[in-house]
Specification:
single chain; 276 residues; alpha/beta; Rossmann fold; two-stranded antiparallel ribbon; 9 helices
Length: 276
């Protein structure tokens, strides 16, 4: 948990972090608290402990963000309490594994509602406050690499996250100049669910070794990107997709080529083959 962060001009900002009770959302909330923000989080169930930084704590609001009325009511309650809303972080999301051929309509609808429609409803509610205040505001969507490449086993989730990236750019176009809208595209990160997602510690190390930066990401990496996009340093950044992925996943075909005895001489041959 961070005790302090560099002064990024965020002190006193009023922030909502959805899904801030655990995982990436909790680290984001703690980091923004350490930056001096007033942070409100939400969830369907109140956590045993709230995100804290030093002697400062977030406030909790019970809310199922998939419900448009609850989502709008949550945003309005926070904004009325402080008289404004400066930053919305649409973090709540996720999906269990489910084969596309057998996923039920109810399951798919719930995944799309959580990962795409909830950010729509929350952003609409935030926009009403942000556009009415002189300083405007900013919205940061926590997206995923699953929305930028095939997502077998979580097809509805990948499709929803792809939609979230499109939504980010469309809202940035519609809502400027008062409201900036950006996305953090999260790569392979270590959370409390890492074992369920990536397997054993050995599997996680093997996966990390394939990334250019040789490690899985963590909550602090994502929170740092959020702080940048929320700060005055990003005053001219809107509609952006900030990748936090350690350099990205290595294309599988390169690994297959490297293992192939036929292809290996081709990979090692440095003789120029261009014909001009």
């Amino acid at each position: 948990m961070p005790t302090s962060v560099p002064d990024l001009g965020l002190s006193g900002k009023i922030v909502i972090v959805t899904g801030g009770t655990r995982g990436l959302g909790r680290v984001i909330a703690e980091t923004l608290l350490a930056a001096g923000c007033e942070v409100a989080i939400c969830g369907r169930n109140e956590p045993t402990t709230l995100p804290r930084a030093g002697d400062r704590s977030s406030s909790f609001h019970r809310c199922d963000v998939r419900d448009p009325q609850q989502a709008s009511g949550f945003v309005d309650a926070v904004a009325r309490q402080y008289g404004r809303l400066d930053i919305l972080v649409n973090n709540a999301g996720g999906s269990p594994q489910a084969e596309a051929a057998t996923a039920s309509p109810r399951f798919s609808e719930a995944i799309v509602a959580l990962n795409l429609l909830a950010p729509v409803h929350l952003s609409q509610a935030a926009f009403r406050w942000m556009t009415a205040q002189e300083a405007g505001g900013c919205i940061i969507n926590i997206a995923s690499i699953a929305g930028t490449r095939p997502s077998p086993g979580t097809a509805a989730y990948g499709a929803a996250k792809a939609g979230l990236l499109s939504l980010t750019q469309s809202l940035a176009q519609e809502w400027g100049p008062k409201v900036r809208v950006n996305a953090v595209v999260v790569g392979l990160v270590h959370t409390e669910l890492a074992e369920a997602t990536y397997g054993s510690a050995g599997s996680q190390a093997a996966i990390a070794a394939t990334l250019p930066l040789k490690r899985l990401g963590n909550g602090q990496d994502v929170a740092a990107a959020v702080c940048y996009l929320a700060s005055p340093l990003a005053a001219y950044v809107s509609g952006a997709r900030l990748a936090v992925d350690g350099g990205g996943e290595r294309p599988l075909f390169l690994e297959l080529l490297a293992r192939s005895p036929v292809a290996r001489p081709l990979l090692q041959d440095s003789t120029p083959y261009m014909d001009f």
